[in-house]
Inverse folding.
């Protein structure tokens, strides 16, 4: 799944190879963070600006029909597929 955003970026944004490598490293690091099952200190801020958090992504893994976005939660919120981790019983300890 990480190759699709990289391929799309290479076709849409023409820049040097180092920029692609920086994007790939940043995106793969983000994927590691959202799969960490850990509450990070910046999660409250990221949630406020619409970035998905590890808790948001764990809701996706638990329920499969919510929180599809890996990076942003804008589309999920707009289309009604966002579910707050505080509304899922397992995640109430993070609230």
């Amino acid at each position: 799944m990480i190759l699709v955003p990289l391929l799309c970026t290479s076709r849409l944004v023409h820049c040097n190879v180092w920029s692609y490598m920086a994007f790939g490293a940043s995106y793969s690091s983000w994927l590691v963070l959202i799969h960490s099952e850990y509450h990070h200190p910046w999660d409250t801020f990221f949630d406020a600006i619409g970035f998905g958090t590890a808790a948001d992504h764990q809701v996706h893994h638990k329920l499969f029909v919510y929180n599809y976005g890996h990076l942003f939660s804008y589309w999920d919120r707009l289309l009604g597929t966002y579910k707050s981790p505080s509304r899922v019983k397992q995640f109430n300890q993070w609230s």
About this structure: Residues 1 and 28 are 10 Å apart (CA to CA). The helical segments are 3-12, 17-34, 43-48, 54-63, 74-79. The radius of gyration is 15 Å. DSSP finds five helices and no strands in the chain.
